[in-house]
Amino acid sequence: MTDQQNSRLFLLIFLAALAAFGPFVTDFYLPTFPEQTRDFGAAPSAVQLGLSTTMWGLAIGQLLVGPLSDQSGRKKPLAGCLLVFAVSTAFAAAAPTIEIFLVMRFLEGLGASGAIVMSRSVAADRYTGRELGSFMGVMGSIQGIAPVTAPLLGALIADFAGWRGIFWLMFAAGLVLLALTVFALKETLPRRQNLKTKDRTPESVRKSASILFSDPIFIAIVLQQFLASCVLFGHISSSPFIFREHFGLSPELYGLAFGGMALAITVGAAVSGRLASPLKAIFLGAAGILFSSLLLALGFALQASIFPTILCYVLVLASLGLTLPAAMTAALTLHRARAGFAAAILGSVTFVGGGIIAPFTAMADARLCVSIIFLSSGLLLVLLSLWLSRRMRLENAQGNAIQLDE
């Protein structure tokens, strides 16, 4: 390590905080929806729209800041995004009307999107091979823990600070990360953008897009992220109906069950980072999703009790944790010269998948819907992983020497 580089420990802690930013921005204030409804004198649907506008900001912002960071470096776009986040969060905390609050939530999403993209692209700038896989495993673990802890912490804080206190706390967190970005983070983007030539001129956005979307391996990984997000958001959107209405759990017990199941993603992500090759993790995760989805569907058909049902969910989510960070590792390894753009596309497609799949869980009995979603996604994930392995072997046989297991 040179004087111009941050230590591994600093990057690990800093990037973990950035990775947790997205889930905290969306989930931290969820327990305060009823309070917001009373405070603004608005309909519950209007308050819930604040979550949707944030998701839109997160999806759009990643596609904007990712390519920009490939052009100008990681530090300045990240600092700009965190500044937008801090300012909009302060205005959201003080918002007198629901309309102003919704606009600020969209801007918050735009600002927070930079944290999500940079948590991945900065790691890709500094590390390759198994080191990158290890970092992506940590990011996946954080993203598994954050959605569980954010609402719980939000409920505790809301008891004495209210929903506005939660937003002022997020404002303070944004300022801390902004200060660390400006004064502590070293630029990580390699000066030479095209790693295969001596050309030091950054790729244009158009050229980067052309390279990414003409790469069948990258497209396959994008589809893998989409299908994996269908499994994740299919579970999130259907679980209240399955565990509260069908199994009759109280809100407290449902929260404990949901949190315990979500931790399985963390375990899977930790194992994923230790495997020798991301391709192996992608296949094992896909096979695990398909197998455990079959068990889950069988359990629903046989009216199994809650405990074997939860066990099947744990297997599904642990397998999901295996495959999600591994796919990100593979994509960023193959496209390090445009890691920001690649991470942005993969991050955005996750929110797109969630937005598309959520309504389908309410079209019929939730158990039937989730069984179909899990099984079809699992089967397609297995087919994609087999194609990826075959394609990589073919590329290496033709002398292209694409290595994902350094």
TrEMBL record:
Subcellular location: Cell inner membrane; Cell membrane
Main location: membrane
Major facilitator superfamily (MFS) profile domain residues: 8-393
Transmembrane parts of this sequence: 9-26, 46-65, 77-94, 166-185, 216-236, 256-275, 282-300, 306-327, 339-362, 368-388
SUPFAM superfamilies, A to Z: MFS general substrate transporter
GO cellular component: plasma membrane
Entries under Pfam families matching the protein: MFS_1
Bilayer topology: Multi-pass membrane protein
Gene3D superfamilies: Multidrug resistance protein D
Biological process according to GO: xenobiotic detoxification by transmembrane export across the plasma membrane
InterPro entries: Efflux_drug-R_Bcr/CmlA, MFS, MFS_dom, MFS_trans_sf
MF term (GO), any: xenobiotic transmembrane transporter activity
Coiled coil stretches, renumbered: none
PROSITE patterns, per the entry: MFS
Record's keyword terms, sorted: Cell inner membrane, Cell membrane, Membrane, Transmembrane, Transmembrane helix, Transport
Similarity annotation: Belongs to the major facilitator superfamily. Bcr/CmlA family.
Protein name: Bcr/CflA family efflux transporter
UniProt organism field: Sutterella seckii
Taxonomic classification: Bacteria, Pseudomonadati, Pseudomonadota, Betaproteobacteria, Burkholderiales
